[in-house]
Amino acid sequence: MGRLIVHPGTHLRGRVCVPGDKSISHRALLLGALAEGDSRISGFLPCGDCLATLVCLRTLGVEVETHDATTLTVHGRGLHGLRAAAAPLDCARSGTTMRLLAGLLAGQPFDSVLTGDPQLLRRPMRRVVEPLRRMGAEIATSVGQTFQPADAVGQAFQPADAVGQAFQPADAVGQAFQPADAVGRGAGFSAGRRRGAGFSAGRRRGAGFPACR
Question: 97's torsion region: left (phi>0), alpha (psi -120 to 50) or beta?
Fold first, then answer.
């Protein structure tokens, strides 16, 4: 067998632009839509799944400005400011879009229909549908074992302790939340008109929103 000799190279210098995080991009859009005021998102990941969430929010009456592929401004409508969609909301192939919107729309005062590509409609949804039903949501699903939230009927949720067990404090279920500066750095999700508060779409092992200036 021949020998492979590796010689050291020169130092690498420069800057690398890290792509945005898909999970955080979804949630940044949803939080911005439900907030009061404007939210500026930088480092957004413009992939098909995140764009499906963006399209659905626009259909629900949320105005989103696109400054470039990775920078957006979401004009929040408040917790109860969404409007009923005139047609089914197309989640394309995004399971995250369908699951998160199912929870968000189940608490709205209007009915919503969620759909998507055949690939998405074959995916299981029981783990989302059943807890929502236990909290008082009326969800009609498609026939079979996939349990798609094809029709999420808006209705007020019941307290969690009425359906089994009350929510526990964060430090009682594993570990308390860490300060924002402990979750690293990343692209920004800043609330432009909310007293300077903000979030950052950081990527610390799939974790959270460190505060940014």
Answer: alpha
